[in-house]
Specification:
CATH architecture: Orthogonal Bundle
CATH superfamily: Tetracycline Repressor, domain 2
CATH topology: Tetracycline Repressor, domain 2
Structural class: mainly alpha
Strand content: under 5%
Largest sheet: none
Radius of gyration: 20 Å
Oligomer: single chain
Helix content: over 70%
Length: about 200
C-alpha cells in the first residue's frame, strides 16, 4: 500500500522546486537536477512526485489557490455586484502583474511536464474556478431580479469578463503591453452601465 504524503510538505516542495526552476530554466531540467537544486536525494523527491508532470500539477494547484486567496482578500461583501465583478477582474490581473513572468513560466513548465495532457490541465483549472463562477452568476441573477443590475444574461456577462481578463493576460505575455487601460475601458463602458441608476 502506498504511503500517504503530507500535503503541506508536498506543496512546500513543489513551490521550492518551482523557484529553483525559475533560476535554472524549465526546459531540459530533469528530476535529478530538481532534487539537487533542492538539496535532496532523488528518491526523496520521487517519494512526493513521480515525475515533472506531478510536480507541475502541484505547482499549478498552489498558484491557483494563491490567486483565489489574493482575489477574495480584495472583495468586500457590501459591494454592489458590478463593483465586486470589477474588483475581481482588477485583482486577478494584479495577481499576475505582481509576478509578470509567472504565466510564462507556468506555460513552459506545462509544456515540459504535461505535454500530452492539455485537456486534463485545462479541466483541472476550470474545476477549481467553476464554483466561484457559479456563485458570481447567482449573485448577478439575484441583483437583476432585485433591480440593482440592468437586465442582462449573467452567465454570458461573466464569461465575457473572464474572456477579457484572460485576453489581457495573454496580451501581457505575447506583446508585453500594459493590459490595464484595456481592462479599465471594458469596466467603464460595459460593466458600469449595468448598474441600475435607481438603486
Amino acid at each position: 500500500m502506498a504511503r500517504k504524503t503530507d500535503p503541506n510538505r508536498k506543496t512546500e516542495l513543489a513551490l521550492a522546486a518551482f523557484a529553483a526552476l525559475r533560476e535554472r530554466g524549465v526546459v531540459g531540467t530533469t528530476m535529478s537536477e530538481v532534487a539537487a537544486a533542492l538539496g535532496m536525494k532523488r528518491p526523496a523527491l520521487y517519494y512526493y512526485f513521480r515525475d515533472l508532470g506531478e510536480l507541475f500539477d502541484a505547482v499549478l494547484t498552489a498558484v491557483l489557490a494563491d490567486q483565489s486567496a489574493f482575489v477574495f482578500a480584495q472583495l468586500n461583501a457590501d459591494d454592489h455586484p458590478i463593483d465586486a465583478l470589477a474588483t475581481w477582474m482588477r485583482s486577478t490581473l494584479a495577481f499576475y502583474e505582481a509576478d509578470p513572468q509567472l504565466i510564462g513560466l507556468l506555460l513552459q513548465f506545462w509544456a515540459v511536464g504535461r505535454p500530452d495532457a492539455a485537456q486534463d490541465v485545462l479541466d483541472r483549472a476550470r474545476d477549481q474556478i467553476e464554483p466561484v463562477r457559479q456563485f458570481a452568476v447567482s449573485l448577478l441573477y439575484e441583483a437583476v431580479r432585485e433591480g440593482h443590475v440592468r437586465p442582462c444574461e449573467p452567465e454570458t456577462m461573466l464569461d465575457l469578463c473572464v474572456a477579457v481578463v484572460d485576453g489581457c493576460l495573454v496580451e501581457r505575455i505575447s506583446r508585453g503591453m500594459d493590459p490595464r487601460p484595456t481592462l479599465e475601458l471594458f469596466i467603464a463602458h460595459v460593466l458600469m452601465p449595468l448598474k441600475s441608476p435607481t438603486r
